[in-house]
Specification:
This protein is mainly beta. The protein has four helices and 24 strands. Strand 23 and strand 24 form a beta hairpin. The chain is elongated.
């Protein structure tokens, strides 16, 4: 009888002990310790979060972004508020893509849909104001200029290119820029250029901006408006090209000129031609800022003649530079070599 009583007491004690160590749902909850030795068991099983910063990413037109947050290797994410890390979810830190806004009207061949005809002007696709993406919708289009029939009725002299400038923008990559002016808004301003040895002629559409200037007639100064055109192109190094600039629809072009592109790998002295207008300094919106200072430094005692004083469009100056560190050229003196076919030839020496 004593053995049976002892066995029953032992069973009751075992059941009582199991009931103390169990928690609701079978999960470990740090801080909800229960009593006795059970609290030590729960504390040792708790997960200690580690916080790794995920930097903010700005959304674009086509891809989403996120605000800054922290993540743990357990998969949870947190926001930091003061010294505390507060758990959150991915939706609260996700920023949706902005989407395109096709409102920009850019006159460039990249957006050209159709050329002008006898009855219709040029048609362009609108661009996204944020990223420049071209719209493919028939709704997002605009027209520019006149019909070819209307252009034929206008005075061509207003489209004749003047004050031609050719500049070497980037010697390492052989990037050249060509600028010129017209008295009225251009119809189809282009640079025509091809390799002297043959090949297909390229037409590079020029961008343009309205600008203000002045003219003097009979000693009287008056304000005028003109349009500054600019075309940029990457050429093959050490290659001869023939080019002219003007208006494709109006048939007004400068005379063809032969040039040879720079060879970035050439050792020693190298040459390039710069055709410029002495009024470029005032045209700050089109790259003119600082040109007066640059020319006065390089040309020291040689006066740059205004384009109106020469039958040629602008004044042509031939420079010889000694390459320096980072491509900076610092000539010590300038010497007028000769005047040939309305071109000033100037050499720069050490």
């Amino acid at each position: 009888m004593k053995k049976i009583v002892c066995f029953i007491i032992a069973v009751l004690l075992t059941v009582s002990t199991v009931g103390c160590n169990s928690s609701s749902g079978g999960e470990s909850h740090p801080g909800n310790t229960g009593s006795g030795g059970a609290s030590e068991s729960h504390a040792s099983d708790a997960h200690a979060h580690s916080y790794t910063l995920v930097k903010a990413v700005k959304p674009t037109c086509t891809s989403g972004g996120n605000s800054a947050y922290y993540k743990c290797d357990c998969g949870k994410i947190f926001l930091k508020k003061g010294i505390d890390y507060v758990e959150t979810d991915l939706n609260s830190v996700t920023i949706k893509a902005k989407g395109h806004t096709f409102t920009e009207e850019i006159i460039d061949d990249e957006y050209l849909i159709s050329e002008a005809t006898e009855t219709t002007p040029q048609v362009f696709a609108k661009a996204c104001k944020t990223c420049g993406e071209k719209s493919t919708s028939d709704i997002d289009t605009f027209t520019y200029g006149k019909t070819l029939e209307e252009y034929l009725k206008t005075d061509k002299s207003f489209y004749v290119p003047t004050n031609l400038t050719m500049s070497l923008y980037d010697a390492a990559n052989c990037v050249y820029g060509f600028t010129w002016n017209t008295l009225t808004e251009p119809a189809r301003p282009v640079l025509k250029i091809k390799e002297q040895s043959g090949g297909e002629e390229k037409l590079v559409r020029a961008s343009f901006n309205a600008a203000d200037s002045y003219k003097i007639e009979s000693g009287v100064e008056s304000a005028i408006k003109y349009y500054s055109c600019k075309a940029e192109i990457t050429l093959k190094p050490d290659t001869e090209y023939v080019y002219s600039t003007g208006d494709e629809y109006m048939g007004c072009f400068t005379e063809s000129v032969l040039i040879k592109s720079v060879n970035p790998a050439e050792k020693g002295a190298w040459k390039f031609i710069h055709v410029s207008d002495s009024q470029a300094e005032g045209n700050k919106s089109n790259g003119g800022a600082g040109t007066g200072t640059a020319f006065s430094y390089v040309l020291k005692s040689v006066r740059i003649m205004h384009g109106n004083n020469l039958p040629f469009f602008g004044c042509v100056l031939k420079f010889v530079f000694k390459p320096r560190i980072l491509g900076v050229c610092k000539p010590a003196s300038v010497q007028l070599v000769s005047v040939e076919h309305n071109k000033l030839h100037v050499s720069v020496t050490e």
